[in-house]
Structure formats: C-alpha cells, structure tokens
Amino acid sequence: MTNQWQLTDDQLKLQSKARALAEEVVAPRAAEVDRSEQYPWDNVEALQQNGFTGMTVPKDLGGPGHSLLEAVLVVEQMAKVCGVTGRIAVEANMGAISAVLSYGSDEQRKMAAEFVLGGDKPAICITEPDAGSAASLMTTRADRRGDSYIINGMKHWITGGSVSKLHLIFARVFDEQGEELGIGGFLAIRDVTPGLSYGLREPTLGLRGIPEMEVLFDDMEVGPEMVVLPPSGLRRGFADLMNAYNSQRVGAGTVALGIASGAYERAVAFAKEREQFGRPIAEFQGLQWMLADMSVQLEAARSLTYRAACSRGAGPDGPGTSPFPDANLAAQAKIFTAEASIKVVSDALQVFGAAGYSRRNELERMYRDVRMFTIGGGTAQILRTVVASRILEQKLPQSRDGYLR
Ligand code: FAD
Ligand code: COA
Q1: DSSP one-letter string for 215-238
Q2: DSSP collapsed to 3 states, 352-392
Q3: Atom in ligand 2 nearest the alpha carbon of residue 385
Q4: Which atom of ligand 1 is nearest to the CA of 95?
C-alpha cells in the first residue's frame, strides 16, 4: 500500500510493529475465537504488552501520548486478521476513554489512564431497548441523593459488558426535587460498584468473540467522584458526550476498513493462484475489474478515515479546537467505509467461489463480521442525518414534535 498519508518514520514503524503482532499472534487464533465465541484474553494481554492499549493517554498520565491516527493504524492492522481484536483495540483507545480523558477530573483521568494502560477496554453504555438511534430518549436515570446518585435502568448491546472493568454510562439526571437537569456520564467499575450487573448476552451474526451484553443498574449508587461532567455542564452533557463519541465512530470505521483490506488482499492472492480454463482466474477481465474497484473503494475509505482521525471539530475556542474528530468528517468516514467494506468483503468472497462460502475459509467469517458496521455506533441512516444537518447548517429533528428532549 502506498504511503499516501506520508506517515512519519515512527508511524510506519508503529504500523509494522502492529502488523507483526497481528500476523504472528492474533491471526492464528482468529477462527477459534469466532468458533468458540470466547473472549480472547490472550490477545488483550498481547495488545497491552505491546503498548496498544491506552495509546492516546498523554505522557503526564504515564501514557505514550499517541495521536488518534496512530491508534487507527494499530486498529486497522488488528482488524485485517481478526475483527474482534480490532474492536478490542478500539475500546481500549477510543470512545469512553476519550470522553474521560477530556472531561474527567484529575482523579478520573488518572484512574481511567491506569485502567487502559493496564489492559482494560472500557465499555460505553448508551443504547437501550427503546432508545437506539433515538439515544436521547434514554430512560436510565440518575437521581441525586445527598452527594451521590442512585442509578436505575438498563442498557443493551453493550460491547465488552461483563469483560470490561470501567464503564461509562449515559443517564438522565434528576435533582432531589425530581427536576430533570440533562444527560450526564457516570463511571462504574465491574465487581466494585454495587448495583452494576449483567443480563443476557446477545447471540450475534458476527464478531462473536466479544460479548454484547445487557447491563443492569439496580439502585446503583455512585459518589460525586464518578460523575463525568463536561465543562459546559449537564444541560449540554448529551451533546458533549456525543462529541467525544466521534472518536469511536472513527474507530468503528477503521475496523470495517481493516476487515475489508484483509479480505481484499486474500482475494488478490487467491486470484493469482486459482486456475480455471487453464489460466489463473486473475487473467479474466471480469475479475480484474472487480479487484480494481475493490482497491479504489479501499483507498477512498482509508483516505476518509485517516482524514477524520486527523481532524478536530469545533471546540470552545472555535473551529478545530475540540479534542475530538469533527462530527461531520467522522460520520462521512463511517458511512462510506462501512458500506464500501461490506461490498468489498462480499466481492472478495465472490472471487473465492464456493471456497469463500465454506466455513473453512476466513472470508465467511469476515463477511459476517463486517456486516455490523452500518449499524453499531450510529446507523448509516442516522449518520446521514448528522451529515445533512452539518451541510445544511440546521437542526433536523427526527421526532414528530420536533425535539426529543
Ligand atoms: P433502531 O434505532 O431501532 O433503528 C432501526 C432502523 O431504523 C435502522 O435501519 C435505522 O437506521 C433506522 N432509523 C431509525 N431512526 C431513523 C431516522 N431518524 N431516519 C432514518 N432511519 C432511521 N450501543 C452502546 O451504547 N454501546 C455499545 O458498546 C454498543 N455496541 C454495539 C455493538 C454491536 C455489534 C451492535 C449491533 C450494536 C451496538 N450498540 C451499542 C448499539 C447501537 O449503537 C444501536 O444498535 C444503533 O444505535 C441503532 O439502534 P437500534 O439497533 O435500536 O436501531
Ligand atoms: N458530535 C457532536 N455533537 C453532536 C453529535 C456528534 N456526533 N451528535 C449530536 N450532537 C449534538 C448536536 O449538534 C446537538 O447540539 P446542538 O443542540 O448544539 O445543536 C445535540 O448534540 C443534540 O443533538 P440532536 O441531533 O439535536 O439530538 P436528538 O435528540 O435528535 O438525537 C442523536 C439524535 C444524536 C441521538 C442521533 O443523531 C444519534 O447519533 N443516534 C445514534 C446514537 C449512537 O451513535 N449510539 C451509539 C451507541 S454505541
């Protein structure tokens, strides 16, 4: 692949270190992780030992202070051989950790940094059975009692719930008089925070090695030290937390990109090797054009994803001052990359013929794994509403009465 992003020597070294780990350690176990549906703790340990968790933790908190693009380079390499491990690398470097590192108190930042540098992959808990795309309709509530909050409700489809230690939970906040103040973020720790438990595990089409869980809050009491309050306060809490979530959207797109790149490389190799009509199938123009189209889609997806990773949205001090990627670029990148990756993996499977349809072949797993990326992390339809509102410079409320909250 050309160095179209003019990655620095250090970034290229990081990329090859990630590629070596992916090929030597992660790839040989990918099929087994899928078949057994067991969480790959050994891969988590390998990521941690190689410095691939907590990559964006700044140096003053003991981290390596990598950029989001550098984390993306690592996620892409993992996902090329194992989508599950790619997703673990996302959770360990983006999403919840980005929000806490930017909005958390000094103590929270220190705690979260220690978790991820030690190999934790914090879970981000937003979605509820009746509040998926309409996330701001969530009903999980945090009632203030003295200095603490009592949280009740449930989330579902929480990636890594039950295997993650740190959880960032979005909930509606009410004061002691029962007045609603806005949506806030709360930290809870597995096996430590009383009232935090897990329900059913969702049986999934793909990405089977990572649990998608119901997470339950039953009078879960958290002290003030566990409230992640964005600087603009609770009234803007939801908007600020969603802003932090843009890094996770870049990460999700990267996993799709990685899976599709892996499928494409396998298809190119197979097309050169497999013979029909007495010649390698790569000599047929029908397949050459498919492979060419796949490469175009991947280059475009990679460009959008890397660009989004390098971007900064508008912050309190004006455009480009947010610590998070630009919402529009992140949404554009995820829409395009997810849809292109699904098509690329499907075409790669086609190149393999019947062999691609067999469960003995990795393409079958990749085809199932890549399908999720137009859904999780904001569906392709919802992300189009994000893009449309940005390009039209207007709010585009989706509820009949205008606004959900
Ligand atoms: P719905 O919102 O019910 O949507 C159903 C359909 O309607 C979709 O096609 C959607 O695009 C469409 N639709 C809805 N509203 C509109 C609209 N206004 N305009 C046009 N179309 C619309 N959530 C978390 O909080 N944490 C996680 O870690 C997490 N991990 C996930 C992992 C996986 C593998 C999956 C599949 C999901 C995960 N989710 C997670 C949940 C995910 O974010 C939601 O599935 C997603 O936001 C969509 O919600 P929904 O599934 O309820 O679909
Ligand atoms: N980045 C930055 N700001 C964002 C944002 C993002 N990704 N998404 C929403 N916001 C801001 C909006 O700009 C708006 O701020 P404003 O009041 O200054 O205009 C505020 O948050 C509320 O957004 P709005 O679109 O008006 O909210 P809504 O109540 O109609 O809800 C969403 C729509 C945000 C829930 C919907 O667009 C969405 O993203 N759904 C998917 C949820 C998701 O990704 N879940 C993944 C869980 S893993």
Answers
A1: EEEEEEEE-GGGEE--TT-GGGHH
A2: CCHHHHCCCCHHHHHHHHHHHHHCCCCCHHHHHHHHHHHHH
A3: 37
A4: 28
405 residues of the chain, pLDDT tens digit each = 445 568 999 999 999 999 999 999 999 999 999 999 999 999 999 999 999 999 999 999 999 999 999 999 999 999 999 999 999 999 999 989 999 999 999 999 999 999 999 999 999 999 999 999 999 999 999 999 999 999 999 999 999 999 999 999 999 999 999 999 999 999 999 999 999 999 999 999 999 999 999 999 999 999 999 999 888 888 899 999 999 999 999 999 999 999 999 999 999 999 999 999 999 999 999 999 999 999 999 999 999 999 999 999 988 888 899 999 999 999 999 999 999 999 999 999 999 999 999 999 999 999 999 999 999 999 999 999 999 999 999 999 998 887 655
Q: Is 379 in the pocket of ligand 1 (CB under 6 A)?
A: yes
For residue 125, the ligand 1 atom closest to its alpha carbon is: 25
Cα separation, 229 vs 165, in Å, equals 20
Output the residue whose Cα is nearest ligand 2's atom 2: 243
Nearest to 343 by CA among 239, 257, 230, 233: 257
This prediction's pTM: 0.97
CB of 246 closer than 6 angstroms to any ligand 2 atom: yes
Give me 324's structure tokens.
């998070």
Q: Which domains does the chain have, with CATH numbers?
A: 9-117 (1.10.540.10), 123-232 (2.40.110.10), 236-392 (1.20.140.10)
Sign of CA dihedral 138, 223, 249, 211: negative
Q: Which residue has the tokens 């908190």?
A: 61
